[in-house]
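testing teh design pipeline on a random one, pls ignore if ur not involved
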């Protein structure tokens, strides 16, 4: 952990971790009816938008009705995936004992099976956040998104791959658990993928049947327009989810780590890695809700199982703690973070952007050593 230890002294890391633990403990102790009411209201809103959207598509021959229907259905899918599905499946509401809010039972409006996602996201990504060769969300097995990834001519297509991933994001998430890159390398067999493929087939079949067969057919002669409307709503959700997630993980100055740096990691060092490997997006209350509060990606990586509606309440405290210890708190408006991500994708498509040859001590952490508090 040489690189992380260079940031703070062992005593500082211990105190830093204790201060963040205190925030967590305070929020957990305060959870109650207000949190339950909030998520139930969001679910009601999402369901209302879906009913409204699908109802308006029955009048899709009238352009304003079609546009309004697609808009309502798009918002419904965004809320379902971001503020409801993502957060419920993180276990943020398991404490309620409500079966409808159970992380193990919830299924979302997405072709990616919830069970597969919980493994690749909740376990792998949140355990090994930004650790090269461990966190498979670094580039999703498709992109070169970190200069420590060895360049290959394949990556010349980085901008094209990123564009396709944005358009087809739910399908990219669905295929993520197949670990295709490991299959290509011979590290994972087809037999190992059979159970994953079975779950993918069942879930994707249901989603395709719902959006592209059942609901279009229900609208009779409007079926082609309804199919187009459903496809447009899925596209809108995909582009939005891609933008929010990439802006929380891959803007400039978000850092990566080696396995060696994270050996025998303490709780405080884990917290430190989450902060250095994440970024926030500024915006208003509605923006934060529509992002599933992943606009507070730093707070989410610190406390993934705390209801996301609490992140705006603690963001100021987390930022103050970072300032106290001389640590960065990466945040900015959506357009700034998105431009930073796009610039990185284009730059890393080309050779010559790899980090310098490694020194005896790990060098993946790029910021200057923090001064003693």
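output:
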């Amino acid at each position: 952990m040489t690189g992380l230890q260079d940031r703070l002294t062992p005593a500082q890391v211990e105190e830093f971790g204790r201060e963040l633990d205190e925030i967590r403990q305070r929020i957990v102790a305060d959870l109650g009816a207000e949190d339950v009411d909030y998520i139930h209201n969001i679910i009601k809103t999402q369901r209302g938008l879906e009913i409204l959207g699908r109802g308006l598509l029955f009048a899709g021959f009238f352009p304003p009705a079609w546009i309004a229907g697609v808009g309502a259905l798009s918002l419904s899918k965004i809320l379902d995936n971001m503020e409801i599905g993502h957060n419920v499946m993180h276990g943020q509401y398991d404490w309620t004992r409500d079966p409808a809010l159970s992380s193990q039972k919830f299924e979302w409006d997405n072709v990616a099976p919830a069970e597969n996602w919980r493994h690749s996201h909740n376990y792998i990504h949140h355990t090994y956040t930004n650790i090269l060769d461990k966190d498979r969300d670094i580039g999703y097995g498709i992109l070169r998104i970190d200069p420590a990834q060895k360049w290959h001519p394949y990556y010349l297509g980085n901008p094209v791959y990123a564009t396709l991933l944005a358009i087809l994001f739910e399908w990219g998430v669905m295929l993520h658990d197949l670990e295709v890159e490991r299959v290509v390398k011979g590290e994972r067999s087809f037999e190992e993928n059979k159970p994953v493929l079975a779950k993918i087939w069942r879930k994707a079949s249901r989603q395709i049947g719902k959006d592209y067969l059942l609901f279009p057919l229900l609208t009779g002669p409007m079926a082609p327009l309804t199919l187009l409307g459903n496809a447009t709503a899925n596209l809108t959700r995909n582009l939005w989810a891609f933008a929010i997630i990439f802006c929380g993980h891959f803007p400039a100055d978000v850092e990566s780590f080696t396995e060696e740096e994270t050996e025998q990691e303490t709780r405080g060092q884990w917290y430190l890695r989450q902060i250095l490997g994440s970024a926030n997006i500024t915006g208003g209350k509605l923006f934060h809700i529509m992002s599933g509060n992943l606009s507070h990606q730093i707070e989410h990586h610190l406390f993934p199982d705390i209801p996301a509606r609490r992140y705006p309440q603690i963001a100021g405290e987390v930022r103050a703690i970072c300032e106290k210890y001389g640590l960065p708190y990466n945040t900015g408006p959506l357009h700034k973070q998105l431009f930073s991500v796009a610039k990185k994708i284009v730059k890393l498509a080309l050779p010559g952007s790899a980090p310098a040859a490694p020194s005896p001590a790990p060098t993946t952490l790029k910021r200057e050593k923090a001064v003693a508090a």
